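Notebook, p. 212. Picked up where the previous page left off. The plan for this session was modest: take the two constructs that came back from the sequencing core last week, fold each one, and keep the raw output in the notebook itself so nobody has to go hunting through shared drives later. Recording the first one now, exactly as returned: residue sequence, then the structure token string.
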Amino acid sequence: MAIQKNLKYIIIIIIIAITVITTVNLFGTEYGKNFLKFDIKGNTKMQQKVVLGEAFGIYESQPEINYIKYAKPVKVKGVFLSEWTLSSKEKRKYWIDTINNTELNAIVLNIKNDDGMISFDSNVPLAKEIRSTKDAPIKDIRKLLIELKENGIYPIARIVVFKDPYLANQRPDLAIKNKDGSILRVKSSSGRAEAWVNPYNKEVWDYVIEVAKEAADVGFEEIQFDYIRFSTGRGIELADFGELSKEKTKQDVISEFTEYAVKQLKTKGVYVSADVYGTIINSSIDSKIVGQDYVEMSKYLDYICPMVYPSHFANGTMGVKYPDLQPYDIILKYMQASEAKLNTIAKGEHRAIARPWLQDFTASWVKPHQKYTAQQIREQKKAVYDANLEEWILWDANNRYTIDGLDK
């Protein structure tokens, strides 16, 4: 009897154990599906904790891992689109259809724009404090990222770094100052007087990187920094950058920010790129003025994106008489110069892939100039390919692109 009674208890215990294990496995499997689904659709990144495991005391918190090695790189053929363009359902559908029917495969989207405003409802503390999301046009950022990925479109978040008049005005302690301590306002080429934030201030760095991390968390695959430089506006020579500027050059600071930002973002599983002036590739003078060192920045970035718009080069540059009239010649020369510069990085060391910005606008203010049509777009693309490169992005601030210049 005692043996039968014990056997009965053993059987009951085994049944209970099997039931518990099955329940946990089923629940855990379903959670796993949701977790993976969540990640693929861009609502989170893989660094988040396994909540179920921790709740049952099964797993311990794991250190952050660099997931970028598992990400599949994309050979980008993209366009820049403003946040206002993609906040419109009609324009969003138009661009998804256009990309599906052309060689395009990527969108560079404003997340923190030239005015310092953020395009979606951010939870970054400083953004909340200064209300830099108050006019955010994109109300469904996660849905947008899901839609783009479902259509095979590679999403890149454009984040403007040191040109941030809104932050400078809201937080004068972070702005570039005049000698008397007042906010310095430099005049841009358009004639606007604008305040910039101080690249020597690490609180500015951290704010930008927190915005970038949030962009990664909502599903962007790449963070692209723009205005990652010092201002060249009229009046900048009057700037007082503080005591640190006596110890470090502009190039030192921009390179240090680049290294710092890349390290911070790698745990988010995203690629990191930066826009730079095309002229810094072969002009040490321009490099020192803006603080962009092409080779040093390329040692940290995944992609370096020189803006080689033909209209932006002076007549005679690189032996090209009229760059705006000779887009193939000027871009080929600059991208060949880029390759030569990048080849100075020792073999085995990390070096960025060059991915140039191309011109899809007519620069009527340049003399002489020409209307940019499908022919000029194709000439620029051919120059990229003839320089043994495979990637490019088109720029038009108004988002009116020459679709006829794209392959089907």
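Okay, moving on. Second construct, recorded in the same format:
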Amino acid sequence: MNGYVIFLANSIVRISSQIIPDTVFEKKVSDDILLGSKILDPKALSEIIGQLIFENYGSKAPKQVLHFLIDLPDFYPKFILSNKNESISEQDFIEAEISKKLTDLELNAQDTFVSALKIAPFVYQFLAVKKEIIESLLEVSSNLGLSLASIVPWGMLLPSLMTNTGEPEIFIVASEDRVGLVLSELNGIYHIGSIKDSTDIHGLTDLVKKLSVYERSKPIKKIYSMNMPGLTFGDDFEVTQLSFTNPNLIFLAKANQELLESQTNLLNLLPLPVKQRSNSLVYVGAVTAALLVLGGVAFGPKYLKNFQNNLAQAPASESSVLSETKENTSQSTVEASPTAKPTEISVEKPELKRAYLKIRVENGTSIAGLAGRTRDYLTNLGYEVVAIGDAEESNREAVLIRFKSANSIYKDLVVSDLNKKFTKVEIGKELDANLTYDTLIIAGTAQVN
């Protein structure tokens, strides 16, 4: 991922770039400029960042976009379980749940950006961040005269370090002033805890045990630690040390264009109406342009003006495409709205993942082994087949598919997959919601091969 990656935490600015791979440069900042991760003087901080770029990447540093990482305490991830009440629409249900989450977190809806994205058939990923954090980073980017490509809560990148199984995991991350504990499942984040004293192993053990059963009946056993070598909690937990030691390097290794267009990039939470989204890269750049133009790029200390002039003379790298795009697209793509609400709810169409669907396969014919062969076919496509058996009927021709109501969104995908193996596919009545599997497939004789 090209660009300058900047992480602000513990009153330290950390910057990295693929210009010098696997290297992070950092500078301690006075508390009147950066207090922890809170920006108190955006102009002074912009000058420090510009100086870091000059000192470490040269006076003719290439013109690249900015990526800001925000710290664990600065964003609020939760899960929202899907609506089971048919008397209320899904949209109304999610809006009500978002309101409840904001109240529980003691966040003011008018000062918060929030989104809810469906990550599994029954689960939405809720994300919230205070408006002042985003605005401060926009001002720093504007001062530097560089386009802002992403603002990413770096803790949301932790599940990408695993094998993408969606299994429940705990991440324990040590920093200068605390130990953070991140609870993950379904490749999302649903809780963050912390402890101030990293030497308090007893307190840390108690918190891990408490969080391992947080809102669940079966304890989480897998723990991944960062910057805490030799950490152990006895035989009850399996602890693995992560190879990464710095959020900057995690971002450079794992970020991609898909991430820039996702909910994890908090720029996509900004409440600007968009006329078209045919080009997602243009959309990100256009949002940035529309916001940055409000602050201008020519003000600030003389040093910053020199920094911008040198950047303007430097050859543009591949990642400068966003800053180039804004000149051509900000007028036609984005229309500012004086009545736009500061809290925008984004409920997007879910990405259907076959592994989330639990399937039972039954043989509806007298053909020996048909259920097993159908199971193998589905497993190879990525589905989870939890059981096979014989159906009550034995002369079925067309394959029959039955879904629970909540899983009917998979209908087109499953039918499309089965049409490659069976010449006739039928949809049956809904399954009982209390069954342990989501979908029943009864194989028939009308097969392609």
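Notes on construct two before I forget. The first strand starts at residue 4 and ends at 9.
Flagging for discussion at group meeting.
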